[in-house]
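User: I'm putting together a teaching handout on how multi-component assemblies are represented. Below are the sequence lines for each component of a complex, exactly as they appear in our records. Could you produce the 3D structure of the whole assembly as structure tokens, so the students can see both representations side by side? Please keep the chain order the same as the input.
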Amino acid sequence: MSDLLQGLNPAQRRAVEAISGPVLVLAGPGSGKTRVLTHRIAHLIQTAGVDPLNLLAVTFTNRAAREMRERLSTLVGKGVAMALTVGTFHSLCARFLRRDIVYLERARDFVIYDSDDQERLIRRILHDLNLDVKQYQPRSILSRISSAKNELVSPTEFIRLNRGYRDEVVARCYQRYQVLLREANALDFDDLLVETVRLFEQHPTVLAHYQRRYHYMLVDEYQDTNRVQYVLVKQLAAQRRNLFVVGDEDQSVYGFRGADVRNIRSFEQDYPEAQVILLEQNYRSTQAILDTAQAVISADAGRKHGKKLWTENSAGLHVALYKGYDQEAEAAFVADEIVHLVTSGTFTMRDCAVLYRTNAQSRALEEAFSRRGLRYQIIGGIRFWERKEVKDVVAYLRFAANPFDSVSLTRILNWPTRGIGERTETELARWAVQLGVPLFQALKELDNEQAAAPFSARTITVLRSFLRLTEELAAACRQLPLVQFIAHLLERVPVRESLVREYKTNEADERWRNVEELSNVANRYSELPLEEQLPTFLEEVALVADVDRLDQTADAVTCITLHQAKGLEYPAVFLVGLEDGLVPHSRSLDQRDQLEEERRLLYVGMTRAKQRLYLCHAGRRMSFGHTATTTRSRFLEDIPPALIKPSVRQRAVVAVPQFGSAGRNSGTTTNREVARASVVAVPPTKPIAADTVPARPQKPRVVTFFAGQRVAHTRFGEGVVVSSRLIDGDEEVTVSFTDRERRLLAELANLVHVEA
DNA sequence: GACCAGCCGTTTTTT
DNA sequence: ACGGCTGGTC
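Assistant: Of course. Below is the structure of the complete assembly, with chains in the same order as your input.
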């Protein structure tokens, strides 16, 4: 049992051994926190004699949950590891709700709506409310609804809080949205958490059951919890207070989805008896990488208590800085450098990762890699489950499992096309509203001869035959194992024919392969009892993240967003697109908190690297079909030049060695490409003393904008100043633009006074 | 209802 | 630059 503590430093040991009570572990990147979490669980089981059934662990991704289970299997045995409850907040809540939801009719078979389903629902609502979809973008309404839910604000409360006409529209949508979700027996992502909190609030016996069951609760990446998750943790840990949270405020990068660093910052107030453990030793990166990352994060103005990371690792090579002529040169550099790293025998392809801010950036890389025959895997982008053909087939499965699911019903109503057009769909929807029943119920009324269905005889025939099909499928899905049911479905519904009709041969083939892949995934559920196969499958479809599908054993370069890279590590890391507008992203430029989050994102990216780190940017970049010159990321200016070394590696001029056969164009490098190669070494823009971070310029102490002034912003156009105030020496101006009010930082937003 | 041409928005990040 | 959508026509 003592081998669990072997090789741990004193701080890690204290974290592992802390038996009871609240514990806050502030852990820097590469400090072995995953190891600490796993070993602590093993320690609780083996040394403290805690039954694994009494342990609840919350991870950030399902992949992390799976890895924790695997590590635990080797430490304490597979059976024990399987007994542990571990998962993401979302999957755990889904599980709790399936078991215990007691106040919603039919609730146990609820489906989970993803963002695409949510958007369809909002569109329908806007349509019903006679509102223009262009003017009120469904995405923006959904994001308002989502933040309301994350703050546990109900539609009723939202209406009470409402400010201005726009929020009134959101409020009406929110209210109707919830009604329709319940009618469809569906929960969206946020509902999974919100409904669990409500379940616990309204049914103390249910909460008490979980409080009794889970003696110890552990939460990873606590800095990324939002309000609902915070409340949930509080509820579950209220009795025994054996709450162990691990996090790092420097790695908080999910503010946009409601994550609130205050949760981790106020842990000691919430649990005054808490033990606080700092893990500052880094085991992952070389000194050079760590120093460079520290230079970037130290300049974060909003940091509460900065950790002083240190490492016993060797100094390693300088962090490399590369400037490409454009994004293609940048991608070419990355590809050639990877070829170099691999051929020189230092690294394998699976050791290399390319990290970027937006998924769209993966395209240039993809081209550069496939041209050289480099194997790569791109995580994210167009997700498997979001492909239209996959979603369409899944819609049949969801509808068979839950006929109240109106979104799925409208999705399959005329797919494959069967002569039910938009006209008929609108009529059907209107009729359902008139009868006050879900869509499916209205459809069923067609069998009732007395009902005055507002359709032509021909339409009624078509609808009835669709109704027969769905009834038949609903019956079959209860009798057949999932894989057989899918086969049956594909027999009854001419999916392949439809794909062939809709797309060109190649594309139709590829889409059909995706549909077949669906059956392969379904096969994983064959072991489960028949009635659990379909629901479990559908839940995975909704909750499994892209990064969960990452294959770390594949001999291929990984291309991934900075966000998804959190928690991962690679011997060689390339950060691309380090330009103002990407990192920090242009949407984050105007607000201090968002800007700081971008800085932390860069920090997260840099600290993924174990041995080699490349910081890349391009002098010109094409976006939206236009090429524009760029400025390198302002965050790079915070790195003392002595720490980074411009990389001047020339592109391979001779034949490039071939690596397997990824992509279509795996082949030779042409002369044209070599001619285009352009390597520019960038001198540091301003001299900075090597060992100090530059002092920030003195902030203004007075406001320079006043209510009523007309101002112009490069992106938002003209607006009127509502108010202006100083926050920490920053002037925050609230401006009413034509679309909405925005809070901007005067220093950053580049506001220009305009004559009235 | 199917088909085609031109148009428009896309790119923040995700469970 | 590209794919998806709209609105026109058959």
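A couple of points students might notice: Residues 622, 624-625 of chain A lie near DNA strand C (CB under 10 Å from a C1'). The first strand of chain A starts at residue 23 and ends at 27.
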